[in-house]
Structures are given as C-alpha cells and as structure tokens.
Amino acid sequence: MSHRGAFIVIEGLDRSGKTTQTETIQKRIQEAGKEVVCIKFPDRSTSIGKMIDSYLRSQSNLDDHVVHLLFSANRWELASTILAHLKQGKVVLCDRYAFSGIAFSVAKNLPPINLAWARAPDASLPSPDLTLFLDISPEAAQSRGGYGEERYEKEGMQRRSQERISDGKGGGKGTWIIVDAGRDMSAVTEEMWVHIRPLLDGLDTPVGRLWD
Ligand code: DGP
C-alpha cells in the first residue's frame, strides 16, 4: 500500500463554527508545509448542488426522499476527486459529510426515512480517517449571527439533527472526536489541532469505505 494523505471531516450543527474552523485549520496545515484541499458539502456549484441550493433557500420544493438522494449524489460526485487527492498525498479537509446527510434527513421524522434507509445511499463512500464533531447546543448556535436564513435553521430541526448526527459513526473505521464548540474559537482550534497534527505525515493504510 502506498503512502497517502489523510481524510479529515469537520461536522456539526449550523453555526457551530465549521466553516471558520475549516479555514483556520487549512492555513495551519499549509504553514506546516503540507498540501491540503478543502471540500464543502453540499457543493452548490454542480448541477445537483444547484438543485440543493434552491431547495435550501426555499426557492423550490422537493420530496424529502429526493432531497436526501440529491445530497448523497452530491457527495458521490466528488468521491473520485477525494480519492485522487488522497492518493497524491494531500490532506483532504471536508466541511460536512454523510453524517449531516443522515442527521438532517432522519430528524425529519418521516417514515420510511429511518436510519437504515438514510445510510444506504452513502454506503461505500470514502470513509474519513478522522471526524471532528463540533458540539454546540442549538440554543447557543441560534444566538450566533445569520441563523434562520435557510430551510433547516430552526431550533427543533437543529436539536433533532444534533441527536442523530453521530448515528453514522459506528460504521466507519476512522476516529470520531467530539469537540466542545461553545468555547472561544482559538480554544476550539487548538483542540482540533491536537487530533489533526499526527495525521499530517499521511497514512499507509488503504482509504476505508463507509459503513464497512
Ligand atoms: P451548509 O452549507 O453547511 O450551511 O449546509 C446547508 C444546510 O444543509 C444545513 O442546514 C445542513 C443541511 N445539510 C447538509 N448536508 C446535508 C445532507 O446530506 N442532507 C440533508 N438533508 N441536509 C444536509
């Protein structure tokens, strides 16, 4: 097995600080002299991503099953890109992944969108080596700027999603770390860095597959 880059996912509720932390961590990895590629899901730039964007902005309505499959398809669109970057030895830093997919769909409480149904379309996607879950209460997240502009940014939906977001972790071979994201930004960054730093020199194990 050849040496490869690490696949790191940052997960959390809306307004948990994922995007800011992803940018900060990206800079740190570059300062450490390593190549890093940042990916954000949903990727709203693709044609599937544009359908998701329109739905999230409430400019279109879609069946909940269709939405779930679109989010998953959006991840599959980039799966081969992720694998190619890892093979080239780059760190792939990903803002949200399949765990959000499960959490937000199962949180809708609509049969038959149960855990097994929700997990199925993401099965066999590249599995992260490390997932950092930025844990924040829905109340604290709501008090941060910008909350409430998109379809899922409602307290009940966020609370139910938070309860479900770790449902996918059991299947992955990678490490799942819960980080208290209610603290100031630099404290959160430092804790994340403790877990990321050891992965920067790459891995010799093959990339895993969700939820093998
Ligand atoms: P963001 O661009 O990170 O603010 O995410 C937009 C919204 O989409 C956010 O409310 C979380 C939700 N979301 C992200 N991934 C998925 C997914 O795979 N499935 C569903 N249903 N929602 C998702």
Automatic annotation (TrEMBL):
Similarity-based family: Belongs to the thymidylate kinase family.
Species for this entry: Gymnopus androsaceus JB14
InterPro entries listed in its UniProt record: P-loop_NTPase, Thymidylate_kin-like_dom, Thymidylate_kin_CS, Thymidylate_kinase
Designated name of the protein: Thymidylate kinase
GO biological process: dTDP biosynthetic process; dTTP biosynthetic process; dUDP biosynthetic process
Cited SUPFAM superfamilies: P-loop containing nucleoside triphosphate hydrolases (SSF52540)
Compositionally biased spans, kind Basic and acidic residues: 147-167
CDD domains to which the protein is assigned, alphabetical: TMPK (cd01672)
